[in-house]
Structures are given as structure tokens and as C-alpha cells.
Amino acid sequence: MLEKQVPYYVQFYHMIKKMIFDGEYQPGERINETQLAREHQVSKSPIREAIRILEKEGLLIVEKSKVIVYEPNIKDVKEVYFCRQALESFAVRLTTQIASNSEIQQIEDTLDRTEQALKNGEDSKIILSLNEQFHSLILKFTKNSRLQKQVDDLNSLVHYFRILNFTGEHRAEDILNQHKQIFAHIKNREDEQASSAMIKHLDQDVQHLLKVLED
Question: Where is the HTH gntR-type domain (predicted)?
Fold first, then answer.
């Protein structure tokens, strides 16, 4: 049910994006604008605007008159993670240097909540959200808005890849342990080591994703 208070294109944007992330729309699947418009009793205009934004974010591919869900591939994984390594290794170096003790405590609290969530067997979406929060806090505490924007531009594809990255037994635990290693250097104000640990962590993500995509 659409809400009148929120622009329709915004609602369709979030709706389609969620369906992609939840697997209701599969990679390579065609999205039928006419069917969506008919189901929700609206014109195609807000749907097309939502599609335009999602295409810009990389989640949809528009080919001639067809709208298709993006299919993750090895080339894109390597390119996106190359950018992440460059940006986030610098971010963690900067945060290690300038973050306040209370900000560093917030990062540690996130790791503690992640560990507790894993012990409690909580939903994978909660674990994924806490994983994202770890990286987001490191970026936030750089207090560098332009750096954050560079990473934000990759966010949709990063989230899509992150869902795939959690595939596999004990994968969430492995990622948490890598985050703990990064954090240990942050807490000790070891900026070079924190940067190296972030690069290593993201490289391990790439290697895991390549295996997932090759299977």
C-alpha cells in the first residue's frame, strides 16, 4: 500500500531496492513497469524515476526497453573493492589519529553487539546491519564529508556484495574476528597497522566473493 504523504517514486525506489536485496527480484530478472503500475494503480512515471535512480546506483540495468536486475560479476567486485581499499584504508588511518575516546568506544560497542547477536543466533539482517555500522562509524569519525560521499556513492553495490559475502558457514564469525583485529589497532592509535589490517580484511572479502561467484 502506497502512502500519499511520501512521493511515489521514493516509495517505489525503496520497494524495488528491498526486493532486490531480499532476493524477491533475482539477478538477471526483468522488472515489468506496466505490471507494477497496474498493481499499485499509478502511472509509470514514478516507477521510471525510481528505476532511473536505481540504475545510477548500479542495481538495475536498462537495455533498450528492458529493465533488468544487475548480476554481480567478478570484474565489478574487483573494481568496487579496489575503491573501497583505497578509501577505507585512508579512513581508518584518519579515524585512528583523530577520533575521540568516546567515538572509539562506539566502535567497540558495535563489535560487542555483533558478538552478542551471533551468540544469540539473531537474524542475519541484524548481523549484516551491525557489520555495515562498523564501517560506517569509521568513516563518520574521519569528519571528512567528501571522503564519506565517495564511499556513499558505492553503497548500493557494496550492500549487494556484502549480502553475498556473508554466504558460507562461520562467515559472519570470520568477518567479526577481522573487524576485531582492525579495531585493536584503532584503540592502540596504530594508524599504519589499522590501515594495513583494513586492506587485508577487504582483500579477504574479495577472495571469498570470487569463490561465491565462481560456484
Answer: 6-73
Contact present, 28 and 71 (Cβ < 8 Å) = yes
Other CB atoms within 10 A of residue 105 CB: 12
Which pLDDT tens digit goes with each residue over 96-126? 999 999 999 999 999 999 999 999 999 999 9
Reported pTM: 0.90
Burial 11-48 (b: 16+ CB within 10 A, else e): bbbebbbeebbeeebeeeeebebeebbeebebeeebbe
Q: Which domains, and CATH codes, for the chain? A: 8-69 (1.10.10.10), 74-214 (1.20.120.530)
List Cα–Cα distances, 135 to 50, 94, 130, 143, 181, in angstroms.
27, 13, 9, 14, 13
| Lookup: cell for 43 | 502511472
